[in-house]
């Protein structure tokens, strides 16, 4: 089984790749940098882990570089995890259009283009594939400074639900994994005080376990989840 995952150099993408590789999946992973942890994983799974250095801010060359030159149109794809994202955080009155456009490219336009070509490949090979988009609890609760970022994830949630409706008939599923705050590089700029305030809004009063999110993604990709589509699955420590 082959899965395409974006953002595998660290954080959630790295953990999800590890978990899928342990379970026998072949992982096609994309990121801009090759971290030490990613390098170790590449050495551990030389045949099963394929890595492409690519800047997902470039949505135009996806078909040629990712699908034709790298994965190859002959390879069936069974899963897609749209995980890579950037966070442009600021209050709305400081909104900068260039920064907003850049974030929409990485967080929305590229995930949509990847979905387009993955579904085409699923149709070509008659694979009943599963697509998982990584969304954020900020869509559902609201945090100061996250309006622009949360809007990109809200766009993905709407896209996912409608994709599920459009392609369910041929067996393609699409879901969003709505993650709460995890301790990764993305959230590392927050102060302890800010983090504690965020954790106080969860029922479990702590950061979300990255492994718990990764295992849920693995479940959604698997056939065990064959009746789940068009849903937002929250892994957020019970955020209110
Ligand atoms: N951390 C949280 O608290 C939290 C909460 C809710 C949802 N999420 C979501 O969870 C997902 C994973 O986040 P994370 O916390 O694991 O973030 P992270 O530690 O910052 O990792 C982000 C990954 O995306 C890749 N990436 C970013 N921009 C890219 C680009 N232009 N081209 C290619 N790769 C790119 C990075 O690789 P390179 O830098 O090597 O390119 C990295 O592997 C994201 O969708 C995020 O929005 C995170």
DSSP summary, beta strand count? 7
The biggest beta sheet is recorded as: 7 strands, parallel
Assign an overall shape.
globular
For the biggest β-sheet, the strand order reads 3-2-1-4-5-6-7
* Total separate domains: 1
Helix-strand pattern: EHEHEHEHEHEHHE
The Rg value, from CA coordinates, equals 17 Å
Annotated CATH architecture: 3-Layer(aba) Sandwich
Q: How much helicity do the residues have?
A: 40-55%
**Mean pLDDT, as a whole number?**
97
The distinct ligands, each listed once, are:
NADP nicotinamide-adenine-dinucleotide phosphate
CATH class: Alpha Beta
User: Ranges with pLDDT <50 over ≥5 residues?
Assistant: none
- Count of helix runs: 7
Quaternary structure: single chain
- Structural class by helix and strand composition: alpha/beta
CATH fold name, please? Rossmann fold
Sheet-strand content, in percent, reads 15-25%
How would you explain this protein's 3D organization?
By secondary structure, this protein is of the alpha/beta class. It has helices spanning about 10-20, 35-45, 60-70, 95-125, 145-165, 190-200, 210-220, and strands spanning about 1-5, 25-30, 50-55, 80, 130-135, 175-180, 230-235. The chain has one domain (about 1-235): NAD(P)-binding Rossmann-like Domain (Rossmann fold, 3-Layer(aba) Sandwich), CATH 3.40.50.720. The protein has a seven-stranded parallel sheet, with helices on both faces. The N and C termini lie far apart (about 35 Å). The mean pLDDT is about 95. Bound molecules: NADP nicotinamide-adenine-dinucleotide phosphate. NADP nicotinamide-adenine-dinucleotide phosphate (NAP) binds near residues 83, 179 and 186.
